[in-house]
Amino acid sequence: MLNCGEAHAMAGDALDRVLPGDMKSAFLAHLKACPPCRNEYEIELLAKNVVRQTLKHVPTPSSVSQTVVQLLRSQIEKAQGRSWLDRLLSWRFLAPTLAAGAIVLALTALLIVPRETSSDSAHTAGNDIINQSLKNFSLVQSGELKPSLIACYSDVIVGYFQRQNFQFTVSVLSDDSCDWYGAMANTYDGVNLAHIVYKRGDDLLYVYEVKKADALVGSVLSLPAAAKESLARTGWYTDPHHNDCNIVLWTVDETLCAAVSTMRKDRLLALLSPR
Amino acid sequence: MDILYNYALRTTGNEDDARDLLQETFLKAYRFWDKYEKGTNIRAWLFRIMKNSYINRYRKETKEPDKVDYGDIENFYNTIRADYADTNDLQEKLFGNLLGDEVAKALEELPEDFRTVVILCDIEGMTYEEISEFIERPIGTVRSRLHRGRKLLQAKLFEYAKKQGIVPHD
């Protein structure tokens, strides 16, 4: 005959019906002879049944499973490098603005976004890195310029640029307060350019990155003399001529970065300072 | 996906958070797919991602760490034993009138480790071996957590029953 301690130790297995036959018989015999143990076991059994009956297994709502599948599909497509236009078409929330946006985007991309072309000559305003950064930021703000890749994690962006095989390392800020990161790569007269968008609450931060040598000593892109001097001396340059946004340039190893944002200058510098 | 959704639902307590947790889980699984060991239990792998995501995301918001007062549980049984010589009537009164919301709330209030095994065993109907694989703990730990979790859950349900007058106050 089991004692109360032994019966107590078996109660869980009995409850879940995994007690071997002979032990089960012994357990039930003890309960029959011991009302306190029987009472306790019956309450446990009842509680288990209450949980099972009131909190039944719920099938995943189809809307939830569809959302997850859609989310994964978009991630896979992004990783596989589908064109930004294809992804735009699959973004439900962008559908209402798609028609107008696509036309404007195509036109502005042709006209303004730095691209592989030989029509622009060197040493003109069009090849000025600050001007290009400002124009691109404006297009990002208006939603006309969409990144090729959007991700929640900075290392997805890092991986995207690694696959571009640029001759410089694209510097991606890992920011916990960032809602999402956007990335795009292109070339301007054979010069590789990286574009990164950081969405942080209401703020947008756009960063233009290029190989430092292409920015400072190359003939395709240009920078104001004051910027070159400051970058050579301190590694930083803050352009003073803009009221509606702030522009900060800095170098990281062999990379030159130009950040444009409507964020206050102190906040922007604080964000960039770990670099 | 159902096991994950149910776990998320019973853990977060609402459909919106459950959906978010499920999405986060699959996003992380996709992101860390190279970490998954082929041939191992993928459900268990996904479950662990979800559990860790939940801990990182939601438990930060709780002000107090999980506490279990086993003394209260023992007192509960002593009270029951002293007050109710015949449990047949008590059983009917004690849990028969509890609503699903009250049971769900009692479950949500369990400490994370205990709640997990109760959900997997009593709602999902998983075996001890399966639970052991899911939570990466020995079967003995599964048994122990189940035992403690159920006792605590019973104590919470009893408190609800007392508050609602389903069973008499002390």
Number of helices of chain A: 11
CATH architecture of the largest domain in chain B, please? Orthogonal Bundle
Share of helical residues of chain B: over 70%
Give a short account of the largest sheet of chain A.
Answer: 7 strands, antiparallel
Mean pLDDT of chain A: 78
The helix tally of chain B amounts to: 9
CATH fourth-tier homologous superfamily of the largest domain in chain B: Winged helix-like DNA-binding domain superfamily/Winged helix DNA-binding domain
Percent range for β-strand residues of chain B: under 5%
The helix-strand sequence of chain B is HHHHHHHHH
Number of domains of chain B: 2
For this structure, the CATH topology of the largest domain in chain B is Arc Repressor Mutant, subunit A
Low-confidence stretches of chain A: 97-123
Question: Which pair has the most extensive contact?
Answer: A-B, 39 and 48 residues
Distance between the termini of chain A: 74 Å
Secondary structure class of chain B reads: mainly alpha
Overall average pLDDT of chain B: 78
Q: What is the strand tally of chain B?
A: 0
